[in-house]
Design goal:
Layout (H helix, E strand, L loop, with lengths): L3 H11 L22 H13 L6 H4 L4 E5 L2 E4 L4 E4 L2 H4 L8 H11 L11 H13 L9 E5 L2 H16 L3 E5 L30 E4 L16 H14 L8 E6 L15 H11 L4 E4 L23 E4 L10 E5 L20 H16 L2 H20 L5 E7 L2 E6 L10 H13 L2 E2 L1 E3 L5 E4 L7 H23 L1
Parallel strand pairs: 3-13, 5-6, 5-7, 7-8, 8-9
Antiparallel strand pairs: 1-2, 2-3, 4-10, 9-10, 11-12, 12-15, 14-15
Helix pairs in contact: 1-10, 5-10, 6-10, 8-9, 11-13, 12-13
């Protein structure tokens, strides 16, 4: 096992590799009908044994053989450009050599142990602490969990323990997981029909989503409007929700539509939560680990949370998550405060240490900012030709286009987005939807994606959009 210093040096050396060598050279490459015969065979077997409630197999109807960089090859030899990345899980792409080497080294030592220190665990903790927002940096406590929803649930439990209060303030459009108690903080009601318990102790405020904000205020006044409402809840005992334990928010909304809030929103939230001694919980499960061009999205506004949720790409494809929080919050926590057998898997932590080292020691975050702006500009240029694109927005590699029936009515273009996703898939690009009405196309490719694959994908997006809009008008 490499020490933290040696791991850092190794990451720096490997970061100089030629990114053009990571993905399959020929992409996209469609050799058969989709799905092809071998994919159909495996899909039929899957259908015979696995739950029919799966969703991604309805979106992308292929059986996967292997992944390289920002490309996926199916069982029939078709190669797809991956703008999906397992929903922001593979931030360094498939089979990244730095991550693979770290995993293999750890596999040769130990693959599971409960809480006891290993070198990979300590190296990860040291590296993670050194990357955190300023208020937590090198002083935070870490609690390992397993999934993003598990991390958010642990964060809520911790805030309630610290304050002795119950109510959590969350936001419209939020997605914090769908299992256990945390489903109550996720905004879409259909997730709560069968999961969790009755909605209580969670109060949703509107998120500053300027394109569909529910109140007619000027865009520059949105943050003030929302935070004033929050302060009313915190100050007035007759406001209704009861004593607030914490404010849970995504720095950039993911499933809600890749919504980037105004730059004053998080600072204003931070100011009012500090004023009333309420923990600010940032859910960085999707926006973190480099996705926005910074390791943590909150760095764009200089805001440090009291508690932060981490998951998805931190494990390089192996399920792992954590919350990091203020050192003083760790006082008087009872043993077994948040249990789970699989918390802090050594292989996942070895991968996470390598991933964070790579982000710090390579130029990948700089290129995410540069290429993200370029792609956003390309989407804006395409949008000018189509009344069905209502808005282009994003930051770093969280870039989205919101589809509408027409720009004047802003009626959600759910069917248009669905057809666009299908057209892109048939042409060899995996791109998924999100948003309040499933009408937002989101770019979430690996941070290491080659520029040529961004350009090819954008060309295919334009071709598919042209085909879909022509069919709609006819």
């Amino acid at each position: 096992m490499l020490s933290a210093a040696r791991m850092s040096r190794a990451s720096r050396d490997d970061s100089m590799e030629n990114l053009s060598s990571l993905s399959f050279e020929e992409a996209p490459l469609i050799r058969t009908e989709i799905p092809g015969p071998k994919s159909r065979e495996l899909m039929e077997k899957q259908n015979a044994f696995e739950t029919g409630s799966r969703t991604y197999t309805r979106q992308f109807r292929i059986a996967v053989r292997r992944g390289r960089g920002s490309t996926i090859e199916d069982m029939d030899g078709n190669v797809f450009i991956d703008w999906f990345a397992g929903v922001c899980v593979m931030n360094l792409g498939h089979s990244h050599p730095v991550v693979q080497k770290a995993m293999v080294r750890q596999l040769e030592e130990i693959t599971h142990i409960n809480e006891m220190p290993t070198e990979s665990r300590i190296s990860f903790l040291e590296t993670l602490n050194s990357t955190l927002p300023q208020g937590l940096k090198n002083s935070a406590r870490t609690m390992f969990t397993v999934t993003g929803g598990d991390a958010c649930e642990a964060a809520v439990s911790l805030a309630r323990h610290v304050t002795g209060n119950r109510t959590i303030v969350a936001f419209g459009g939020a997605y914090h997981g769908v299992a256990g108690d945390i489903v109550r903080a996720t905004a879409n009601y259909h997730y709560r029909q069968y999961a969790g318990i009755a909605l209580q102790d969670v109060y949703h405020l509107p998120y500053p989503y300027s394109y569909r904000f529910p109140v007619k205020v000027r865009e520059e006044e949105m943050s003030s409007f929302i935070v004033s409402h929050l302060e009313h809840l915190l100050r007035d005992p007759y406001a209704g929700p009861g004593p607030v334990a914490g404010v849970l928010v995504e720095p950039v909304q993911g499933e809600g539509g890749y919504v980037v809030p105004p730059s004053d929103f998080l600072p204003m939230l931070r100011e009012v939560t500090e004023k009333y001694h309420v923990p600010l919980i940032l859910d960085e499960v999707q926006s973190g680990v480099g996705r926005t061009g910074r390791i943590w999205a909150s760095e764009h506004t200089g805001v440090s949370p009291d508690i932060m949720c981490i998951s998805k790409s931190i494990g390089g494809g192996i399920p792992v998550s954590a919350i990091v929080y203020r050192e003083d919050y760790d006082r008087n926590l009872p043993g077994g405060f948040h249990l789970g057998t699989y918390r802090g898997n050594p292989v996942a932590l070895a991968a996470g240490n390598a991933i964070l080292g790579y982000l710090r020691n390579s130029d990948v975050l700089e290129r995410v900012n540069v290429l993200g702006r370029k792609l956003k500009s390309r989407f804006e240029e395409i949008a000018r030709r189509y009344d069905e694109v209502g808005e282009v927005r994003g930051i770093g590699f969280m870039v989205a286009t919101e589809m509408v029936s027409d720009r004047k009515s802003r009626e959600p273009g759910t069917a248009i987005a669905s057809k666009l996703k299908e057209q892109m898939f048939s042409r060899g690009v995996l791109m998924h939807t999100c948003g309040h009405y499933s009408n937002v196309m989101r770019f979430m490719a690996p941070l290491t994606i080659e520029e040529r694959l961004i350009d090819k994908g954008a060309d295919i997006y334009a071709e598919a959009l042209d085909s879909v809009t022509k069919d709609t008008k006819h």
